[in-house]
Specification:
It catalyses: sulfate + ATP + H(+) = adenosine 5'-phosphosulfate + diphosphate; adenosine 5'-phosphosulfate + ATP = 3'-phosphoadenylyl sulfate + ADP + H(+). Its EC number is 2.7.7.4. Homohexamer. Dimer of trimers. Pathway: Sulfur metabolism; hydrogen sulfide biosynthesis; sulfite from sulfate: step 1/3. It is found in: Cytoplasm. The protein is an alpha/beta fold and 574 residues long. The chain folds into three domains: 151 residues, Sulfate adenylyltransferase (Roll); 212 residues, Rossmann fold (3-Layer(aba) Sandwich), CATH 3.40.50.620; 176 residues, P-loop containing nucleotide triphosphate hydrolases (Rossmann fold, 3-Layer(aba) Sandwich), CATH 3.40.50.300. Helices cover 39% and strands 16% of the residues. The chain contains 22 helices and 18 strands. The strands form four sheets. Strands 1, 2, 3, 4, 5 and 6 form a six-stranded mixed beta sheet that branches. Strands 9-8-7-10-11 form a five-stranded parallel beta sheet, with helices on both faces. The protein has a five-stranded parallel beta sheet with strand order 15-16-14-17-18, with helices on both faces. Strand 7, helix 9 and strand 8 form a beta-alpha-beta unit. The two termini are 53 Å apart. Bound molecules: 3'-phosphate-adenosine-5'-phosphate sulfate. The site of 3'-phosphate-adenosine-5'-phosphate sulfate has 19 residues, from helix 17 and helix 18.
Length: 574
């Protein structure tokens, strides 16, 4: 049997309002609509499906005050995180948000109407009080505090919701369980006791050992319940993590564990967040909840110290344990004991025992460099997923961006480099040379400063997308302006390595060897604003390589570029 929901009744608003779906849908079309951001959408989904039971809407001022001050709703139920809908003055005015008004809540991603809010009240929160009470300080190095101070608008709207449509998801649908669905799933499996494990990180052997120990200690099954809504900025994306969890699931004894995804927007609120997480898992039918070291910790504060003590979350949950209705299973950090080839909680390890660990930073380094990740730390299939997500330099795309006068040789170098890279294989090679780009991408543009800048920014956009997709990109426009080249570098470097090659063949040489007579036309005034004739060329201040076709031949220049790419690990062979 699944655990009783928080407050006694699961507030599955979708089920409740289904009989009125047609009527609510029609009404939602004619009401003013508030378009919701990603954070609000996460909250909305869990209000509507009962994950936040006993909430049936966004918190009114009374509930908000109770939660902020005492972790309690007006009806006396425990609740530790304010669930609020923040709006600004323009929205209030334009949508007519006032007590009694009905407002449609709309999905920003696809314009679908999701729910109708009946406004109960509008109130201005004291954000400093909220930060201090909920997150423990007003230090905005804390992501929850930062969101409150810089993103959340100044007025909160409280009110109950009626559900219309589920949020559309397109990923891992088979693993997205609402509380109602998960409860039915547990019942189907015949699970009596379920210990839920919250995570926002990839799981390795230590996590598997911890959850199996928890299951053993409580004679329970395990629910791996990772957050796939919003987690800490900089976390590994949920696509990769879910592939990791799926790989790990097969490492549990048969039918011991299940995996379900939670569309929660975390606040990284440590102790308060742990209490909230426990309530959410109770609503999803779990009977037990694991709270480990530094649960939902936001990292370091402005003084370089952790925002919360490592076991503060456990202490807060313990304080409310009797009335919480879901049992906390406490764990200390799991440490590897090489001499026994097993993991043990830190507090159970006898003094003097030899231990081993790989920190998060060390793991990231090993993924970056391809260094071995030992089997005692993780499973090969998990490592494989992470390696796919962290390609080695030789598997990544890059851009070689050449700049120089017309006829400086950059097109010839580009073609020779293309051939050389094609011969080596390993990745597709894409060419963005001046003439083709001007024809295919920028045919309406001329040669004013503005048009040239736009041309370079288009090249940068395409190069960045191709680099992201793993191609070797060779771009070779004149690109006479430093600023445009700097912006191109900035954009492309988000996708992969970028090399600026200054093809510094002197203008006189470019002109002298111009068989097509283009410079002659420019000198004669037939082409206006020609680079080097009557338009400037700004020399790159920080090129990665300078070459010159007057002094070198194409072959030796290509060789220099190849050496540059090689020294960055981009051409390593397996
Ligand atoms: N006013 C002016 N200034 C410079 N270049 C001119 C101009 N008008 C036309 N062309 C021909 O356009 C080609 C260079 O375009 P780019 O896209 O490389 O220029 S830029 O980077 O946007 O400045 C290059 O073409 P190709 O000679 O076929 O390479 C130039 O000859």
């Amino acid at each position: 049997m699944a655990n009783s929901p928080h407050g006694g009744v699961l507030k599955d608003l979708f089920a409740r309002d289904l009989p009125r779906h047609a009527e609510l849908s029609i009404e939602s079309e004619r009401l003013p609509a508030l378009v919701l951001s990603e954070r609000h959408l996460c909250d909305l989904e869990l209000i509507l499906n009962g994950g936040f039971s006993p909430l049936q809407g966004f918190m009114s001022q009374e509930d908000y005050n109770g939660v902020v001050e005492n972790n309690r709703l007006v009806d006396g139920n425990l609740f530790s995180m304010p669930i609020t809908l923040d709006v600004d003055e323009t929205q209030i005015k334009e949508l007519g948000i006032k007590p009694g008004a009905r407002i449609t809540l709309r999905d920003s991603r696809d314009d679908r109407n999701l729910a109708i809010l009946t406004v109960k009240d509008l109130y201005r929160p004291d954000k400093i009080r909220e930060a201090v009470q909920v997150f423990g300080s007003d230090d905005d190095t804390h992501p929850g505090v930062k969101h409150l101070f810089t993103v959340a608008r100044d007025t909160y709207v409280g009110g109950e919701l009626e559900a219309i449509n589920r949020l559309e998801h397109y990923d891992f649908l088979d693993l997205r369980f609402t509380p109602t669905e998960l409860r039915a799933h547990f019942n189907k499996l015949g699970w009596q006791k379920v210990v839920a494990f919250q995570t926002r990180n990839p799981m390795h052997r230590a996590h598997r050992e911890l959850t199996v120990r928890a299951a053993r200690s409580q004679q329970a099954n395990v629910l791996i319940h990772p957050v796939v809504g919003l987690t800490k900025p900089g976390d590994i994306d949920h696509f990769t993590r879910v592939r990791v969890y799926k790989a790990l699931l097969a490492r549990y004894p048969n039918s011991m564990a299940a995996l379900a995804l939670l569309p929660l927007a975390m606040r990284m609120g440590g102790p308060r967040e742990a209490l909230w997480h426990a309530v959410i898992r109770k609503n999803h039918g779990a009977t037990h909840f694991i709270v480990g070291r530094d649960h939902a910790g936001p990292g370091k504060n402005k003084d370089g110290k952790d925002h919360y003590g490592p076991y503060e979350a456990q202490e807060l949950v313990k304080r409310y344990q009797d009335e919480l209705g879901i049992k906390m299973v406490e764990f200390q950090e799991m440490i590897y004991i090489p001499d026994k080839d097993e993991y043990m909680p830190a507090d159970e390890i006898p003094n003097g025992t030899r231990t081993m660990n790989i920190s998060g930073t060390e793991l990231r380094n090993r993924l970056r460099t391809g260094k071995e990740i030992p089997a005692w730390f993780s499973y090969p299939e998990v490592v494989e997923v992470l390696r796919e997500q962290n390609p080695l330099p030789r598997e990544k795309g890059f851009t070689v961006f050449m700049t120089g006068y017309q006829n400086c040789g950059k097109d010839q170098i580009a073609r020779a480099l293309q051939t050389t890279l094609n011969q080596g294989g390993g990745r597709p090679v894409s060419m963005l040379v001046g003439e083709t780009v001007r024809h295919e991408l920028s045919s309406e543009l001329g040669f004013s400063r503005q048009d040239r800048d736009l041309n370079i920014s288009r090249i940068a956009f395409v190069a960045s997308e191709l680099t992201k997709a793993g191609a070797a990109v060779i771009a070779a426009p004149i690109a006479p302006f430093e600023d445009a080249r700097r912006q191109a570098r900035q954009l492309i470097e988000k996708s992969g390595p970028f090399f600026l090659i200054h093809v510094a063949t002197p203008l006189e040489y470019c002109e002298k060897t111009d068989r097509r007579g283009i410079y002659k036309k420019a000198r004669a005034g037939e082409i206006k604003g020609f680079t080097g004739v009557d338009d400037p060329y700004e020399e790159p201040s920080k090129p990665d390589l300078v070459v010159d076709l007057e002094k070198q031949n194409v072959r030796s220049i290509v060789h220099e570029i190849i050496l540059l790419l090689e020294s960055n690990g981009l051409l390593d062979r397996v």
